[in-house]
Amino acid sequence: MSSNGEEQEIKAGSQDKEYFQSYADVGIHEEMLNDVVRTNAYRYAILKNYEKIRGKVVADVGAGTGILSVFCVQAGAKKVYAIEGSALAKQTRLVVEENKMADRITVLQGRAEDVKLPEKVDVIVSEWMGYALFYESMLPSVLHIRDRWMKKDGVILPSSASLYIAPFSDDEISERLETWSAMKEKYKVSMDCMKTYAKQCLSYGAHVRCICPEDVIAHACQLVNFDLSKVTVQEVTDIQRNFELTCFGSSVLHGFVLWFTVSFPENVILSTSPYSQSTHWGQTLFYNEEECDVRQDTQIQGKITMKPNKAKPRFLDVNIGFQIDKHNIQQKSYYMSDNIT
Fold first, then answer.
1. Is 289 a catalytic residue?
2. Could you report the per-residue pLDDT of 8-24, keeping only the tens digit for each?
3. Among 127, 178, 290, 291, which one carries the catalytic annotation?
């Protein structure tokens, strides 16, 4: 009989297989490439940092279609190792050939933890961010390449990452819940009892969409600010942070919203804030089971934990505990699976 550790390793390996299969599908790459805010931020950052890339060896971790590798060659890279774990690697090679860069870009198919590079690299570039920054847990793979293959004075793009939390209000949620009260008038069947269940379903996992800035009811609190040249795998897989928020005015607290920014050298920033241009990441929303009234200067104090799920480490277990004006503590756990709505 296998131990619990062995069983978890088998489950994680099975999820990795599913994960890489999903990235072999063209749809997810269409979504990412059509996100011009994301793609242009990387293009601008790479080209603006050409002095750090020109004549250097680069590792592109999670290369996908290979577009970042191509950008690196355009910035003067001597050699790029495009590491892609999915079967899309075959198409990546075709993109490289189509752009007449086969002499400068070598596509390596395999997990970042398994590939063997023929030499150390000067630069690492990767678009590793998931919803709420850490969903899909790709950052540890990037850090593995950093620790195993990057030179001591190497450069990593992006160079830092920050995560923010803020409270939000959702006017549409009340209308959505009133759907169940409307059943009596529509069909002469009472379904008010469904409201509690609907709230439970809404608050089970994470929701991703772009919210309006006016729905954010307090200044955000920065939860993490990681220097990607120094941060450890332990630090990015065990997030535990306290937060304090002060509300702008009278409103209803429906939950908490997360967003992130990543920064590149030469002052290039990619933000998924509701105050910035929208991206395919949107913002990540976690609904409370019960709404709370707040007013001017209401204090919200809380703690958030984020960890990879033990059985499926590409998914996240999130726990948010908070209290309003130091009154009763409310606690809620969420599961960020592939059923994100």
1. no
2. 555 556 667 777 677 77
3. 127
